[in-house]
Design a protein that fits this description.
heterodimer, A: 113 residues, B: six-stranded mixed sheet, five-stranded antiparallel sheet
C-alpha cells in the first residue's frame, strides 16, 4: 500500500556496519511490525509494536533493535550487520481487533557483503 | 511455539490447470488469513476465514477452513498467468496475539 512507505528500498552494506531501515505510515494504525522474508522460510516476525510505548520481540529478534518514534514511524536497526541478515525486509501495520489485517510496505532489499 | 507450514513450497502449472496450496498449523487457530505476493511486490490481503468448516469464494479462488481449525486450503480453478506469485496463509492461535505467517507457496503459470 502507498500508505506504508519504507526507506531505503535497496541497500548494500558491508559486514559490521550499522544500518537503519525506516517505516512510515499514514493509515493511522497503532500496530506496526517488521518482518524478514527469505526463500522457503516465508515471513518471519522480527519485532512488533502495538502502540508507541509498546515494543515486543518476535521470533527472530537477535541482532536487531527497533524504535517506535511516533504512531506513524517504526524503525529497524542492525547494529552490526552480518551476511546472513541479507534478506527482504517488510514493514507492516494493522488496526488490531479480530481481523488484524496486515498492510505491508513495498519492502527493503538488504545485502550484507 | 506455534508453527504454520504450507505445502507445496513451489508449484508449476500450465495455464488452465487447477492449483491447490495447503496450510497446516501446530495449534488451533482463531482465524486464518490468506495473502498474495506478486513477483517483486509485497503481500496483499485476500481474505479471512473465521468459522470451523467455512468456505469462501472469490471468482476462481476457493478458500476453506478446516473443521478442527488447524488447517486451510486455497484452490484456484483454471489458473491464469495473472495468478503467478507467492500465496501465504497466516493465523492467530494459542496464547499468542500475533499473526503467524506460513512458509508460502510459489505458483508459476506457464502460458
Amino acid at each position: 500500500d502507498a500508505d506504508v512507505t519504507q526507506t531505503p528500498r535497496n541497500r548494500i552494506t558491508k559486514t559490521g556496519k550499522r544500518i537503519m531501515l525506516e517505516c512510515s505510515q499514514t493509515k493511522g494504525h497503532d500496530r506496526m511490525y517488521w518482518y524478514r522474508q527469505d526463500p522457503g522460510l516465508g515471513l518471519r516476525l522480527i519485532y512488533y509494536s502495538f502502540d508507541v510505548k509498546d515494543i515486543n520481540k518476535g521470533e527472530i529478534s537477535d541482532g536487531y533493535s527497533v524504535s517506535r518514534q511516533a504512531q506513524a514511524k517504526f524503525s529497524l536497526s542492525l547494529e552490526s550487520a552480518i551476511p546472513n541478515q541479507t534478506a527482504l525486509y517488510f514493514c507492516a501495520t494493522s488496526l488490531g481487533g479480530r481481523t488484524d489485517t496486515q498492510y505491508f510496505g513495498p519492502g527493503t532489499r538488504l545485502t550484507v557483503l | 511455539g506455534q508453527q504454520v507450514m504450507q505445502i507445496p513450497q513451489y508449484q508449476h502449472v500450465q495455464e488452465g490447470e487447477d492449483f491447490t496450496t495447503y496450510c497446516n498449523s501446530s495449534t488451533t487457530l482463531s482465524n486464518i488469513q490468506w495473502y498474495k505476493q506478486r513477483p517483486g511486490g509485497h503481500p496483499v490481503f485476500l481474505i479471512q476465514l473465521v468459522k470451523s468448516g467455512e468456505v469462501k469464494k472469490q471468482k476462481r479462488l476457493t478458500f476453506q477452513f478446516g473443521e478442527a481449525k488447524k488447517n486451510s486450503s486455497l484452490h484456484i480453478t483454471a489458473t491464469q498467468t495473472t495468478d503467478v506469485g507467492t500465496y501465504f496463509c497466516a493465523g492467530k492461535g494459542g496464547a499468542t496475539n500475533k499473526l503467524i505467517f506460513g512458509t508460502g507457496t510459489l505458483l508459476a503459470v506457464q502460458p
